[in-house]
Design goal:
Elements lengths: L14 H22 L7 H11 L1 H12 L3 H12 L6 H24 L5 E2 L1 H8 L4 H10 L2 H17 L4 H15 L10 H5 L4 H22 L5 H17 L1 E2 L1 H22 L17
Antiparallel strand pairs: 1-2
Helix pairs in contact: 1-2, 1-3, 3-8, 4-12, 5-12, 5-13, 8-9, 8-12, 9-11, 11-12, 11-13
């Protein structure tokens, strides 16, 4: 799909201006939360402050899209968030099955090597009380995938790809996305803080974000630039990690399998578009 922006919105189309706005908005909230030294579970106010920081990617994208004053851009932005028909049926399969398949393969590999593979305590808890999975799923959709992806993929990715190849754009966005998480490792009570700043799990987390960004672009470019596809894929990544806790070795194996998947995708679909050219002409932004 090709979308042309008029010259009046070019000053709002820079991905770098977007990134600066995201970091300023988000870190205004997350850095004070980190410096407070208070555990999130002990302060409802701190939870609100921390949650506001997570809105940064989406807030910045909405503001810059609105200030473009281009109704075509505005409609395109929102339609890509809600239009489920953009996503071909086979790509729904990719979105919902790829990460669980990687997780299951890593767990089996670890099990064959003598490890425990995967911890099923959380999944077992939901089997006993299946209704609990609905509010948890909604929580993991609203806090993370939705506010982040309407910005990272819904706004920044197109603007990066207008200037660079899909692979380069993915890696740039992956680095920015990883750095954006840094203050979260210093906020007590967060998942990131439990990994330990500078630990092996920290580096796997950061590097995995950079690598899996390639998979996000691949899905996005093959689903008509669907922001919804990125939201759903992000949700599956987070929710799978919540339900199935991998052992230390399986965690490393999962990262290796993600790298392998990214390499195969680049080799098969091509670094320039990560999609078949005839089905996905490049987007241009003036």
């Amino acid at each position: 799909m090709e979308t042309k922006h008029n010259s009046s919105c070019s000053r709002y189309s820079s991905p770098w201006a977007y990134f600066v706005l995201v970091f300023v908005f988000s870190w205004i909230f997350t850095i004070p939360a980190a410096l407070s030294g208070v555990n999130l579970t002990e302060s409802p106010l701190l939870i609100v402050v921390y949650a506001l920081g997570g809105l940064g990617p989406g807030v910045a994208a909405i503001l810059l899209t609105y200030f473009s004053r281009d109704p075509v851009v505005w409609r395109d932005y929102w339609s890509r968030i809600v239009d489920f028909k953009r996503i071909p049926l086979r790509w729904y399969g990719v979105i919902f099955l790829l990460v669980p398949a990687i997780t299951a393969t890593a767990a089996l590999m670890d099990w064959f090597l003598g490890g425990r593979g995967i911890e099923l305590e959380m999944a077992g808890r939901f089997l006993q009380q299946p209704l609990l999975i609905l509010p948890l799923a909604l929580f993991y959709l609203i806090f993370g995938p939705l506010p982040e992806e309407i910005g990272w993929r819904g706004y920044a990715l197109d603007r990066l790809q207008a200037r660079s190849s899909a692979l380069t754009s993915s890696l740039i966005l992956g680095v920015v996305w990883a750095l954006w998480h840094l203050p979260q490792f210093l906020v007590k009570g967060t998942y990131q803080e439990s990994l330990g700043f500078g630990s092996r799990s920290f580096w796997i987390f950061m590097l995995n974000i950079m690598v899996i960004s390639i998979l996000y672009t691949w899905i996005y470019n093959n689903t008509g630039r669907s922001t919804l596809s990125a939201i759903l894929f992000h949700f599956v990544v987070n929710f799978t990690g919540e339900l199935f806790a991998l052992s230390a070795r399986a965690e490393v194996l999962s990262f290796g399998l993600t790298v392998l998947a990214a390499v195969l995708i680049v080799a098969t679909w091509g670094a320039e578009r990560l999609a078949y050219q005839e089905d996905n002409p490049p987007m241009t932004i003036s």
